[in-house]
Design brief:
Elements: E1 2-8, E2 16-19, E3 24-29, H1 35-51, H2 57-72, E4 89-96, E5 103-108, E6 116-119, E7 129-132, H3 143-150, H4 157-166, H5 174-190, E8 193-196, E9 203-207, E10 211-214, H6 220-233, E11 242-246, H7 254-270, E12 273-278, H8 281-291, E13 301-309, E14 312-318, H9 328-350
Length: about 350
């Protein structure tokens, strides 16, 4: 479990200590304040620790640098240092519940592709993280993998990593029984089950009485649910691990957002540490309602808000959503309500 992140001079993100909950972590804020940067940074650090089998300073310095470039796609690594005049140094410390997995790296504005490792974790992580971008990825499988492996592309590496995980085999036995319970509300919302063709690698949505439909013909919102279904079915998101989801609400109507919210909280309750970045007040309130119910009362949660003040980005964080003062979505909704009431009153006066 990630307990905290200590940042100094990393992109637009505020310096300081970020504290995280054991279950669900929600990051809110307007565009351009660094929500996605936070998700990508945490994902990168964990992915390197999970996939690097030989943990030594030399190997990790290369691996962290390459992964940061692959995920963020800067022209050179030093572009990820906070933009200031002169030469600056970025320092990043990741602190886990077990200190043996702690890591610390640094790099400067003139760094090209390699970081300095200040602390080497003792062991590889037992579970690999999962990253969901706002865009669904089911329809890209399997052709995207071969293109990414064979050609230089501008796509960020999170897409490739997630597509590799989508191709993992399904669970069998007792764990599959537990998975079936978790999948029930998702499959009900989809109106069918997610299947794959072992020969072609393509995914399908199989609905009773309608047969199989190719995933590219399925609505994008449903494809996002199907993506979640697949990774639960393979055991990638089950009992342990990390899920980073950027804008879960994208292309989903409120009914599907409710389904996704319940699945997210269920994953957090099962042992997966979840990190979300969202603009949706509806999703925010749905998560809050679920966490207050007896079934999910023990899920550790953390709420963070990023906002611009006097030209800089500041961080608010709390164990409760009520402890967050700056919720842009709420402010805009209230302002819109005022404008609507004003327009309605003017219309009544004219009539």
């Amino acid at each position: 479990m990630i307990e905290q992140l200590v940042l100094k001079n990393f992109t637009i993100l505020p310096d300081g200590v970020w504290h995280f909950g054991s279950g669900l972590n929600v990051i809110i804020g307007e565009n351009g304040v660094g929500k996605t940067h936070l998700l990508k940074l945490l994902y990168t650090l964990l992915k390197v620790q999970a996939d690097t089998k030989v943990l030594n300073k030399t190997t990790l310095e290369r691996a962290y640098g390459q992964k940061l470039i692959g995920v963020f796609r800067p022209e050179r690594l030093g572009r990820l240092v906070t933009r200031k005049r002169g030469r600056e140094r970025c320092e990043i410390t990741l602190e886990m519940k077990s200190e043996e997995w702690n890591t610390q790296i640094a790099f400067t504005t003139n760094a090209k592709s390699q970081v300095e490792v200040l602390r080497v974790p003792a062991y590889p992580l037992p579970a690999s993280p999962v990253y969901f971008p706002p865009r669904e990825l089911m329809t890209f499988y399997p052709w995207f993998i071969s293109i990414y492996q064979g050609f230089e592309t501008a796509f960020e590496e999170t897409w490739y990593d997630t597509l590799i995980l989508l191709g993992a085999p399904l669970l069998r036995g007792r764990r599959a029984e537990k998975v079936a319970t978790m999948l029930e509300p998702l499959e009900e919302a989809l109106g069918g089950k997610v299947e794959s063709d072992q020969q072609t690698g393509r995914f399908y949505l199989k609905s009773p009485g309608e047969g199989r439909m190719e995933m590219p013909l399925v609505a994008e919102g449903w494809c996002k649910l199907a993506q979640l279904v697949r990774l639960i079915s393979t055991g990638t998101l089950l009992e342990q691990g990390y899920l980073f989801w950027d804008e879960p609400e994208a292309n989903l109507n409120p009914r599907l957002i409710k389904v996704v919210a319940r699945s997210i909280v269920t994953l957090a309750a099962s042992g997966v540490q979840v990190f979300l970045a969202t603009h949706s007040l509806f999703l925010l309130r749905e998560l809050e309602i679920l966490l207050q119910s007896p079934s999910y009362h023990d899920v550790g949660s953390r709420w963070m808000a990023l906002a611009r003040r006097d030209g800089t980005v500041v961080l608010e964080q709390s164990d409760h959503v009520d402890g967050i003062q700056t919720i842009v979505a709420l402010e805009e909704m209230l302002e819109q309500s005022d404008r609507f009431l004003s327009a309605t009153e003017e219309l009544v006066v004219e009539e």
